[in-house]
Design goal:
alpha/beta, Rossmann fold, 2 domains, four-stranded mixed sheet, four-stranded parallel sheet, 10 helices, about 15% strand
């Protein structure tokens, strides 16, 4: 990957995972909660994982998150006060104790200095699960969600692991309701509107096989990247291909990393011919909102839905 901007899209290109002190077995993102031996929010808590049953002996009090999505989830379920450190890419929420820790190239000694009793990570980079295990620090791995069901499962599992199961139930119900309302609000023209999703200024995009591509399908949009040559779920398109595809909507997920905006897009050679540029429906979205699959996915859906409704209103 040549672009330095693309590394910020951590959920599109999976990287790290999650760790903790009180786990006895490694957990994966698809793990389902088992009934606790005590009350719902009590400990020990057992979680079923693909590798067996995992037990969390006590409520974590010193959480280190090396995953931007996990960081968002931890705070969303009310476990923020238990967080002692997050990685350099965890930019939301702003109050999270951001450090120079890396989920891409985790430094075991640097992580251990925070004396974590739960470490969150999305990929076992650098064999971190084994290395932390040798120090008595178990690891909970939460891979990037593949769909909305995965978002709800990850929120639920992180909430149970941190002692906030009931908060996750309320949060997931809220997200489901908001998603359903947004989807219902979007008009469905006979000929679907087309969309180009931009990951960086080198025209990397995402097909309908990706999480973000599924969000466009929910809104009834046709993704121009789906017909691009090659087998990658994240193809690099050409300017000529994008111009020829003439998308009705352009969504910029490279506003922070790469400084892209409506103005920079309009200034590109021949892009003024594209329908989205002519109508002004070039939608800038904060990079993290467009690449971290947590509660803020509703902000992304709403931004795109608003653009679709504007286009349809102008078409009448």
């Amino acid at each position: 990957m040549k672009s330095t901007c693309r590394v910020r899209h951590r959920n599109l290109w999976p990287t790290l995972a999650i760790a903790g002190m009180a786990l006895t077995v490694v957990a994966c993102g698809s793990a389902a909660a088992l009934p606790a031996t005590h009350k719902t929010t009590g400990y020990p808590i057992k979680l079923r994982t693909p590798d067996g049953v995992m037990t969390i002996a006590r409520r974590p009090a010193r959480i280190v998150s090396l995953s931007a999505s996990a960081t968002e989830d931890v705070y969303a379920v009310g476990a923020g006060k238990q967080v002692v450190a997050v990685d350099s890419y965890s930019t939301y929420p702003r109050r999270a104790p951001r450090t120079h820790l890396s989920g891409f190239t985790p430094n075991i000694e640097a992580i251990a200095k925070y004396r974590p009793d739960l470490v969150l990570i999305d990929t076992d980079a650098g064999n971190i699960v084994h290395k932390l295990g040798q120090l008595g620090v178990p690891v909970l791995v939460e891979p990037p969600a593949a769909n909305l069901a995965g978002v709800y499962a990850e929120i639920g599992q992180i909430a149970k692991a941190t002692g906030h199961a009931r908060a996750a139930e309320r949060l997931n119900a809220s997200i489901r309701g908001q998603v359903a309302a947004i989807v219902r609000s979007v008009p469905r023209p006979k000929t679907p509107l087309t969309v180009y999703h931009e990951l960086d200024q080198h025209y990397y995009s995402a097909t309908s096989r990706t999480f973000i591509g599924q969000m466009y399908k929910l809104l009834g949009l046709r993704n121009i990247a789906d017909k691009a040559q090659g087998t990658s779920a994240y193809p690099q398109l050409s300017a000529e291909y994008i111009i020829a595809s003439n998308p009705d909507l352009i969504v910029l997920a490279d506003t922070v990393c790469c400084g892209q905006s409506r103005a920079t897009v309009a200034a590109r050679p021949d892009w003024s011919r594209i329908a989205a540029v002519k109508s002004g429906e070039v939608v800038p979205v904060n990079d993290s909102v467009a690449s971290e699959w947590g509660p803020r996915i509703v902000l992304f859906l709403q931004a795109v839905a608003d653009a679709v409704k504007t286009l349809e209103a102008h078409a009448r």
